[in-house]
Each structure stands twice: as C-alpha cells, then as structure tokens.
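Is it possible to get an amino acid sequence alongside its tokenized fold?
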Amino acid sequence: MNRPLVGTLATAVLGAAALVGTVGTAHAAPQHRTQQSAQQPAQHKTKAVDFAGTVALSNCSGSVVRMPTSQANDPALVMSNGHCLESGMPGAGEVIVDQPSSRSFTLLNKSAGRAGTIKATKIAYATMTDTDVSLYETSSTYAQIEQKYGIKPLELATVHPAKGAAISVVSGYWKKIYSCNIDGFVPTLKEGDWTWKDSVRYTPQCKTIGGTSGSPVIDTATGKVAAINNTGNEDGEKCTVNNPCEVDESGNVTVHQGINYAQETYGIPKCFGVGNKLDLSAAGCALPKPAATRR
C-alpha cells in the first residue's frame, strides 16, 4: 500500500502503512494517480487539474467529494483510503459505518496553498474489503466551504473508467500531481490479508509513494474522480504487504514491480442518498456491508 507516512496506521500492522501508492518508497518527494470514465475516448480535450478540493491528512492524502445528487447544503464528504483511518487499518472482511470521528483535514487551494481546515463528525463508511476507501462526513456543508474558502468539491464519476484514459493522481499530502494513463484493470489484486476487485493499474509514469494513499485519481477528460490511489509493488515480492500481486480470471498470479494501483469509485454514488446519507441497501449499491447486516 502507498503507506501513510505517520500516524496510527503504522502501529496497526507492520508495514501496512505502505498500502498507499508505492508502499515502501522512501523518497520524500510526492507522487500519485488518476482515473477516468469508461466510454471516454482516449484523445479528448483535457481539463486542467489542480489541487483545489484536495486535502492533506496526518498520514495520507484525500479530497472533498460530492455525489452527482449532492446538494449545496448537504454535509461535505472527505474521501481517502480505508488504510488511512486514524484508528488503524480495517481487517479483511471488516466494514465500518457511522463511527464518530473528530479528524481534521487541511483543505488546499488550486496552487496547493492552505485554504483552511475542515473537521469530521464521523466515519460514514470505511473498508479494505473489495476496495480501499474511507468516507468521512464533516461538520461543514459544501456551501459553507465554498463561501468561506472559495473551494468546490470534486465530483465522483458514475461510469467505469476506460483503459488508456489519461489520469492525474493528486496528492494533498505531498502537494504533487502524478500524470499517466490507465494501463488496464486487475480482476483481483491481493496484498497481505486484503483482496481488492477490478483495480486500476497505472502506466509506469505514475510513481506514487508513501503519503499519496487516498489521493483522488482524476479523469483529465471529464475532471471527475474515477478512482482512489492506494498501493504499488515495491520489492517484486508476491502478494505480501507493499507488494500486491495480480490474479486473473483463471487464477494465474503475476507480479509487476514498481507498478502502482488505484481502486475504482464509480459505484460509490449508488450507495448515498438524499442528504449524502449512506444507504447500503439502495438499488445498485455493491459496497461491502457490515457483517451484522449481511444476508
């Protein structure tokens, strides 16, 4: 995993903090990834990608995001990785919902300057099962954030990203943008105890590192969030922490040292309803459910 550089994650699992980007990279320089919509032609005019709406966490990166149905007076959501939680990484199969949180996020402006601070009221949803995501509900509405800081949220795409799409991985932690393309998709990506489905593989140019975990992956054709940066294979090992392996439909395992990955986010909007409220029972919602609510 592209490791969270500091914070509680490091104490949760030895080496687990590396889940972000290129998990074990020791550089102090920023790097990250992006994704795009499924039916988007590869050669389209691109939208300028900057840092507005991204955030820096204590150990990772993230962004203020909205669903297509979100309203100005809805509580704003901040998205990062599940492995970036302040309480430590969720175990395989664990799903966290509606857990109180007072975590603070440093909000960035277009040029990566500090626009201000917003604060969480709860972890609306988090897991490292099938995907690697955390969504915090904050005490500020989108309208309040725009009025006070002049910052608009990033919008989540609702279509599957496309192979070859140009993307930008925007790291609020490092204040750096990594640009490359989607090289393809991985049916199953395994790392340590965790398994992720239909992951995005970057082309080699996106050399994300620790601290880029949770960075939004922006489809540069649409300007929307297509995925969330989360891991990379550092040492060429097979299926170990910081060294994810790819498993195809036939069960064949391959390793790509130095290649980094992201988790798709296009399905998330189907799990949020009126008022940005989580609804895991909504039609089309495929996010994993807590064990107590599974059928």
Notes: The chain has two domains: 9-50+157-264, 54-155+272-287. The longest helix spans residues 142-149. The first strand starts at residue 54 and ends at 56. The chain has a mean pLDDT of 88.
